[in-house]
Structure formats: C-alpha cells, structure tokens
Amino acid sequence: MGFHIASAAPRRLSEDETMQGVVNAWYPLAWTSELGQAPVRRTVLGRPIVAWRGADGAVAALDDLCPHRLAPLSRGRLRDGAIECAYHGLRFAADGRCVRVPGEERIAPALKVARYATREKLGLAWIWMGDPEQARPQDMLDIPEADRPGWAYEQGDALGYGCHYLNLCDNLCDPSHVSFLHPTTLGDPLGEGVPIDTRAQGRSIVVSRWIRNVPPVASFAPFIAGPVDRWQYYTYHAPSITVVDFGTAPAGRVGPEGDRNLGLRVLIGHCITPVDDERCIDHWFSLRNFGTDDPAVGRALHDGFRVAYQEDKDMLEAIQQEERRHPGVRPVRIGIDAAPVRMRRLVGQMQDAAGPAASRG
C-alpha cells in the first residue's frame, strides 16, 4: 500500500523556511580520520564547533568561542588534552570547563564553553546538537551489514552543496529523478514511469521501486550481464540521513519479498550535515556484497557515484539560486512527491516537539 498525501496534514517545513534545525539529533561532524591532535572547526546548524581528540582519544566538541574575548578556539592549540586559546592562553577541557587562566589562581565560573555529546560510528564522528545529557545512542544510524562478514566498506567524500539540506533530502527521497538526471550511471530511460511505493515507518520513510527484465545500469554492467531485475530502496531517517539500497539480480531470481543478497547489492549512506540556510555537506560511504576483496571494484563504483552526485549538486545549487530569485514562488507538488512531503512534515514535527527550550542559545 502506497503513502497518500492527506488533505489535513500536520505542519510541514516549506522550501523557503529559514533554518531552525532539529537540535535533538545526531549529525556527522567529520570523518574519524580527520580528527587528531589538532583542533578542527566545523559548522552545524549555523553554529561553529571546534573538535579534537583528547588525551584519552575520545572526540571532544565545544562551541568554537572563547568566552573571554570571543576568539575562535579553533585558532588555538592542544595542551594536555585541553584546548588553549591562541589569544590569552585560557585553557578549556573537553567538558567545557576552564582549567587554566595564565597568571590567575581563581577561575571565574562564567569561564566555560558549551559542550556537545559525540560518538563514533560508520567511519564518522557524530555530534548531538541538543542537551548532551539527553543524547540518545539508540537514535544513531544503524546499518547491520557494516558489522557482517561478506560486506566491504568504502569511504566516500564529504561533498559540499550550496543548498538547504532539506532540498538534498528531497532528492534522496526520490528515485524517480534517477532516470533523467543520472542516465549514464545509476539509471536509464527504462526506469521512466515505473511506479514508486512510499511507506512511512515512525521517523523513517521508505521509497522503493523495481524495474524488471532489463539490462543492468552502467554502474553494474561490468559485474553482471542482462536481463536483470533492478531495485531501489531509499530509506530516509529524519532529519538528515538516507540509506540507498540498490542492486541487480538475474531476472526472476529475487523479488520484493525475496533475499536481495542473492544479487549484487550496494548500500550507500548519505549522512547530511546542515551547515546553514544555504549550505550542507553530504558525508557518503558505501557497503557492497561483491568484489569485497578487490579495492578496484570499490574505486570503479565510486567513480560512477561521483559523476552522479556532481549532477545532483549542479541541479540542487541551480534550484537554490532560483529559490533566492523567486522567494514567493512555491513548488507545485505532484504524485511522486509523497515522500518529500512526508519528509518535511516529519522534520517540522521534530522541530515543534523540541520547542524553544531545546535551543543551545
């Protein structure tokens, strides 16, 4: 049963609504390999963050702002696992406490910096933008295949988009665009008009379709001969993550209720960091169940993905420019937009539920 747009729906975020952000959520901060014994500056939901690894190796994240003269702490250096401001040498521990003021024995209680909860998973350091005491590890993205034998993990890129993150989420709830925007990599004209099924599952949305008895798309053509059945499952997790399960199997071998592992299967994680109202970063990676011992297979797949994602980037940035030129124009939704409509509704509900008290101020 497909999802239908209700006539009396709860509030959903409009395309031109300014960024408020869902603070009670996990967002990618950086690849784990980017964090070491030097401060790194990132921006999440419009808020500059400084991150580093403490003496114990754990990721620390604070507001990138010294409370003394408002100097960016990311310009400083690490001393004994704490970060030292480059301006006057005040030093702050991973919990945000000031632990040293040069020349002074007493440290004023106001000398503290807001801290954020962090965790590492799937090759990424994640940050919880709300109250760290309310951080819920169980809300983190879970891909069971990442810990199973027979699967290879491949880190992708941190691709910056000049668009609002919800516009990228629209794209990642929408397999119908693949036939038109990515005809040389992920799709072809044979997918045009194939029906899409949309299902809501709590704070997730699953959008899927099957294309039967056709040649493989370009990304899979080197690994399998036709005719094949092809599938696409886009699972969106509010507010900013989508896992795409797409693959190919000999025609008739696997159906919607069958074991997709009998075919060639790729899982792509798109973990989006909302930077500000007009910028976001897609940290993407892949898992595959074939060619797991051959790095060349991963490189070949990622070369094709990079072509497709650049096509997405070019289109979404062009849309952002037109939204800026036409601030009063709202998109006209059609039937294939059931998932994007539901996606924005979910994000709106999460923001409403958090309310003003959730702001870090």
Structure notes:
This is Aromatic ring-hydroxylating dioxygenase subunit alpha. Keywords: 2Fe-2S, Dioxygenase, Iron, Iron-sulfur, Metal-binding, Oxidoreductase. Residues 26-127 form the Rieske domain. Pfam families: Rieske, VanA_C. It comes from Pigmentiphaga soli. The protein is of the alpha+beta class and 361 residues long. It has two domains: 37-134, Rieske Iron-sulfur Protein; 141-357, Naphthalene 1,2-dioxygenase Alpha Subunit, Chain A, domain 1. It is 16% helix and 31% strand. The protein has four helices and 17 strands. The protein has helices spanning 165-171, 178-181, 295-325, 338-354; strands at residues 26-31, 40-44, 47-53, 59-63, 77-79, 82-84, 91-92, 98-100, 117-121, 124-128, 152-161, 197-201, 204-214, 228-237, 241-250, 264-276, 279-288. A seven-stranded antiparallel sheet has the order 11-17-16-15-14-13-12. A four-stranded antiparallel sheet has the order 5-6-7-8, with no helix packed on it. The protein has a three-stranded antiparallel sheet with strand order 1-10-9, with no helix packed on it. A hairpin with a 6-residue loop joins strand 6 (82-84) and strand 7. Helix 1 (165-171) packs antiparallel against helix 4 (338-354). The longest helix has 31 residues, at 295-325. The radius of gyration is 22 Å and the shape is elongated. Residues 1-18 have low confidence and may be disordered.
